[in-house]
Design goal:
This protein is of the alpha+beta class. Helices cover 34% and strands 27% of the residues. Helix 20 runs antiparallel to helix 21.
């Protein structure tokens, strides 16, 4: 139907090529009613394929123009000159504004004036549109644009944007317009600003497009503006939620988690935020049910404002306050549902009346909108979060309330995790403190000082901090004035590691009492770790874990102040450092041994002769290991720190912990320093005895004479009896060689050695038995007694207490 009277049309097509808007001109031109065509594919209107250049521009999202063959409702063919302008919808999707008219020769032949309909179409478009000439002066603007600008078309015509509205952001718009006129290229621009006469900020998306003639010369430009405020704020809310996911809960600290919540909220949509936690939660305890008829005590855990120093607050951070019965905060807590209020709300006024200072702050800072959101996680109420606005002119909306609920819900889980962690840490700390030595014992053989730093703790001067692990140490007095030094490290952290550490420490003390050699003791301890691992089922380790989860390292050393010999063995533990009296430092070359829990591999002992005033440094691997640093570097730092003389062992410990660890320790650190002493000949006396009955009376006489020489006359009677019984026992059940040794330490130590390896034991003697009462008598007289195996047999020993004067 080449001769059909042409009509102008205007159509809006979405990204899926469906018709969204069908103008009255399109109806008259093609015969389709709006209800018939809206929602249908626009391709159904084509009588022929689009030209290749047009298809390319559509694909690339560029403006296009050209003659297109369309099909009338009655089937006739209508040729129309169309122009396509890319737009964006409210959600940011691609739209096309398609306008058109009949070719110019048809228009002249029929006398039709398409420009009139074109002008009507532009003026009635539901988006702001304006046209500017080559000098960027306004030629025309539709009604929506005049509403946005706050001026009539007559007031703006012939003026540039700088002249219409001086200042930002219109100066930037004017610059962009001139860029379009100069280059002939379309510019897309987004802005967040406030329109003239508006109180609410808007988000705008603008298409600045050149207007060209048939020769391609730029004759002016058009500006099409879309209000994307709702989409902008929706993106902002999503950004706040994303930031909340990233920033809240970065630590297992209740206070810091609450502070992170306030930082996200103030930076996102509120002007002043407070977090009040129930008193029990702030202390890391389990929150109980909320009482219905009594005030609730809360603690201001965190607060933040757009104003420096939080001048809106009437409760200082860390301070406790109360929610009175019947007030809005307490009812919000009890109900567990968020609420949004304005200052004129009766319930909010009642809350303000309970605190004149709070009412005065609301008035002074012009706080006009309040939200209260309960902090709840895992069915427990933890506290209440207040969101307030005063600098932001818009009150909180329903969307803001939903956003606040979402942020608080995420934060509540982190707060509850931190609370649970705090409780577990305190339990583990109490457990570990009960298992580790409170203070070093006073010993004649050694002077000892030690330090323990849990994972993540602060500098050495600070108290132990955040985490509890399985490192342990011990100083165990042995028979014969000897001392055992122990340092161990259980794999892992937390209560389980502390419990395992306690069991191993108890086992070491028990095995030490048996006086096992260091390598034998580690063998027994290795078997114990294997048994513990087998006994702990999935309910302890976790169903997904297999056996072999318990592991530990240990260093066990025994120092004899009489012989000055130190016997050591280690199970996968770092070797000790030795500082000679002259200041030389070396790492002792001990057989490494496997870690505890592997089983089937041997341990070896090594013996070192120590000078008096030598210094032994025992430690765990957390001291010398650090991320990004070679172990050898840590060892070199340790040697350097030990080489500097210190006035005391305490000062030496602090010096090492200042110099060696790299920042906050990533693993537990134990450091134990032991300075050796020697028991000289004036405090030790030894006799070799012949294997004959006369040796008993001789031993009694020699012991009595030595005690008299030492000035221990009060202990002479008991000591002679003990020596008599021990020598008799050696003659009757042991054999040569027989040796008697007396040691004057904090106690009087009587030792008798013989050539038999059979261990003595107490037994009940019958009325007519001639023997069997010797060891029973020794046990009654001595403070403690026992036996130990030697290379040639055994030694039975007994200790007698000495009075303070002795």
């Amino acid at each position: 139907m080449e001769g059909r009277v042409p009509e102008d049309l205007a159509v809006v097509v979405d990204a899926d090529r469906a018709v969204l808007v069908w103008s009255d001109g399109a109806r008259r031109l093609l015969g389709h009613e709006s209800a018939e065509i809206v929602g249908r594919p626009v391709t159904e209107l084509l009588a022929a394929a689009l030209p290749p250049s047009t298809r390319r521009h559509v694909r690339d999202g560029q403006p296009w123009s050209g003659e297109v063959a369309l099909r009338h409702r009655d089937g006739d063919r209508v040729v129309v000159r169309l122009q396509g302008t890319p737009l964006l919808d409210a959600a940011g999707g691609r739209l096309w504004l398609v306008t058109g008219s009949a070719p110019a020769h048809l228009a002249r032949r029929t006398g039709h004036r398409p420009t009139a309909l074109w002008d009507l179409t532009l003026s009635q478009l539901p988006v702001p549109v304006a046209v500017y000439d080559r000098q960027a002066r306004l030629v025309a603007a539709n009604e929506i644009m005049t509403q946005v600008m706050g001026r009539t078309e007559e007031e703006m015509r012939g003026r540039t944007l700088r002249e219409i509205q001086p200042g930002p952001p219109f100066e930037e718009y004017d610059r962009l317009q001139r860029e379009v006129l100069r280059t002939g290229e379309m510019i897309f621009h987004e802005d967040h600003s406030q329109a003239p006469g508006e109180t609410r900020p808007h988000a705008w998306s603008m298409y600045l497009s050149p207007v060209k003639d048939e020769a391609g010369a730029v004759r002016g430009m058009s500006a099409t503006v879309f209000d994307t405020t709702e989409q902008y704020w929706a993106r902002r809310r999503l950004a706040v939620l994303n930031e909340a996911s990233l920033r809240i809960g970065t630590t297992l600290d209740v206070t810091r988690t609450a502070e992170e919540l306030t930082e996200v909220a103030v930076g996102g949509f509120a002007d002043f935020v407070t977090v009040d936690l129930l008193e029990s939660v702030a202390l890391g305890a389990e929150p109980g049910p909320l009482p219905a008829d009594t005030p609730v005590t809360v603690r201001r855990t965190a607060q933040r404002s757009v104003l420096g120093g939080c001048p809106e607050s009437v409760v200082a951070a860390g301070e406790a306050t109360r929610y009175p019965v019947g007030t809005l905060p307490l009812r919000t807590l009890a109900a567990g549902r968020a609420t949004r209020r304005r200052p004129g709300d009766p319930e909010l006024r009642q809350w303000l009346r309970t605190s004149p200072a709070r009412a005065e702050s609301m008035t002074r800072h012009l706080i006009h909108s309040v939200m209260m959101v309960p902090l709840r996680a895992r069915g427990l109420t933890l506290g209440l979060v207040h969101f307030l606005r005063h600098r932001t002119t818009e009150p909180f909306s329903e969307d803001d309330l939903l956003l606040a609920e979402e942020i608080v819900a995420r934060a509540a889980v982190s707060v509850d995790n931190a609370r649970r962690y705090t409780r577990e840490r305190r339990t583990a700390l109490a457990l570990q403190r009960s298992l580790l030595p409170e203070r070093p014992p006073r010993l004649a053989a050694l002077e000892v000082a030690y330090r323990y730093l849990p994972t993540g703790s602060g500098p050495p001067q600070a108290a132990p901090g955040a985490d509890i692990g399985g490192d342990w140490f011990d100083v165990i007095p042995l028979s014969g004035a000897r001392v055992a030094l122990v340092v161990g490290d259980v794999v892992g952290h937390g209560i389980q590691a502390s419990a395992t550490m306690g069991r191993l420490r108890t086992a070491v003390r028990t095995l030490a009492d048996v006086d096992l050699a260091p390598d034998e003791l580690l063998t027994q301890l290795d078997d114990l770790v294997i048994r513990l691992d087998r006994e702990e089922g999935p309910e302890t380790r976790g169903a997904e874990e297999t056996s072999g989860q318990i592991g530990a390292t240990c260093l066990y050393a025994v120092y004899d102040p009489v012989s000055r010999r130190c016997t050591m063995a280690r199970a996968g533990h770092p070797p000790p450092a030795l500082v000679t009296p002259g200041g030389d430092v070396r790492i002792l070359d001990l057989p490494a041994g496997p870690p505890l829990g592997l089983g089937g591999l041997p341990f070896e002992s090594s013996e070192v002769l120590l000078e008096e005033d030598s210094l032994l440094a025992l430690y765990t691997d957390g001291l010398i290991e650090a991320a990004g640093r070679d172990v050898e570097v840590g060892v070199a730092l340790l040697r350097r720190a030990l080489s500097d003389p210190a006035d005391s062992l305490e000062e030496a410990c602090d010096r090492v912990l200042r110099a060696v660890p790299a920042g906050r320790p990533a693993d537990d650190i134990v450091l134990m320093l032991a300075r050796t002493a020697v028991l000289g000949e004036e405090r030790v006396r030894t006799w070799q005895l012949p294997p004959e009955p006369a040796a008993v009376s001789r031993a009694r006489k020699m012991a009595g004479g030595q005690l008299a020489e030492w000035g221990l006359a009060e202990a002479e009677f008991a000591a002679e009896l003990i020596v008599s019984e021990l020598v008799t026992n050696a003659l009757r059940y042991g054999g040569a060689p027989i040796e008697l040794r007396l040691i004057r330490d904090a106690t009087l130590i009587c030792e008798v050695s013989d050539g038999s390896s059979s261990a003595p034991h107490l037994r009940r003697a019958r009325v007519f038995d001639e023997g069997g009462r010797g060891l029973l008598l020794v046990a009654q007289l001595a403070e403690r007694w026992g036996s130990r195996q030697t290379a040639t047999g055994k030694t039975i020993w007994a200790e007698l207490p000495l009075s303070d004067g002795e």
